[in-house]
Each structure stands twice: as structure tokens, then as C-alpha cells.
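Hey L., structure's done. Input below.
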Amino acid sequence: MKRVLMFAALIAWSGIAGAVVYKWVDAQGKVHYGDRPPDGVHAEVVDMPGSHAVSSEPAHSESAPAATQTPAAGDDRAKKAVQDDVAQTREKQCADAQEHYKKLIEGRRLYKTGADGERQYLTSDEIDSERLNAKHDVDTICNSTS
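Output:
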């Protein structure tokens, strides 16, 4: 019998511990807590020990008017994320171009693979041309600001 009671208590406790609790302030400045915020009120998810809340981001009621939400903050975060992604891509492209240039400078017998899979060794003029193109690529990719 004790096991049944203990099992029932644990089941009840796990349901309570998994509940999401919201915090909001009313028009009079009083702080309220509950499992569902009123419509049109800015509410935050309360991070409680033992809770399974995924995020502590502010929660908005589904029918909240658009005026209470701030899309500009989301746009700023999105723009920052895009800028970071572009910067990382440029850094990788720059590193690749520098590596290609380094191989052309340090290489002794440079070649291209032909259509039939055989090596076609470059002449001195072709090597110089490839080096100039690679140096131009490094300068263009690594020093670009846009």
C-alpha cells in the first residue's frame, strides 16, 4: 500500500514540476504569477528549479496585439546573426585563397588534371599566370569590406 501511495505522490509531483509558470505586471503595478497570462499582457516564463521550461524568453499570449510585441529586437538579432555568418564565410574564403596561393608559390611542378584524368604539367608562363590570379583572389577576398 505504501508503494501505491508513493507512486501516486511522485506522479502528482512530476506533473506540478513540469508546469510552466508565467509572471506579469498588471496596470496597477502588481506582480502576478499563473499558468496562463491574461490576453494582451506581456508575460515572462519563470525559471523554477526542477521545471522543464525550454526557454526563459518572454512569452506572449497567442491573441496579444502586435503593438505590445517588439519586432525590432528580433530584426536586430537576425541582422547580427546574418552579419556573423557572412564574416565567418569571408574568413573561410580568405583562408582557402591564401592556402591556394601558398601552394602555387611553394610548388615545384604544378599541374592540372586533364579530362582523361592524366596530369598536364604547367609551363613557367602558365604557373606565373596562375600565381598572379591567386594573388589577385587573395587581395580581393581578404581585403574586401563589403
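Strands lie at 21-25, 31-34, 42-46, 58-60, 111-113, 119-121. The chain has two domains: 20-69, 72-142.

-- N.
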